[in-house]
Specification:
- The longest helix is centred in the middle third of the chain and has 16 residues.
- α1 runs parallel beside α2.
- The protein is of the alpha/beta class.
Length: about 100
């Protein structure tokens, strides 16, 4: 098993990038028993993007893969707050 590597979400966590990020996440999940998610660069985020993260996090829980946030931008946290997903996504440490 590979040790945890930062998985960068990039700047756009929106519908235009969802399929690409989903593919990258799936590869990462197959190779690793621990996922370090870096959302610090996210400047555009929408509901499909957050839904993808929620699905991925659920998959991790079901497969006993450790999910940890390396960073989260204000935009990401604000969007999660708006949709009531701060807790489910594990972003509590980044939300004041």
């Amino acid at each position: 098993m590979n040790s945890a590597m930062g998985f960068s979400l990039g700047e756009q966590l929106d519908i235009t990038q969802v399929m690409d990020i989903k593919d990258r996440l799936q590869v990462e999940l197959e190779q690793s028993d621990s996922l370090l998610i870096d959302g610090s660069e996210v400047s555009r985020v929408d509901a499909p993007g957050l839904q993808l993260l929620l699905t991925a996090k659920t998959v991790c829980q079901n497969q006993s893969i450790n999910w940890k946030w390396q960073g989260a931008s204000n935009e990401l946290v604000t969007a999660a707050k708006t949709l009531g997903l701060v807790g489910p996504l594990g972003l509590n440490d980044f939300a004041d």
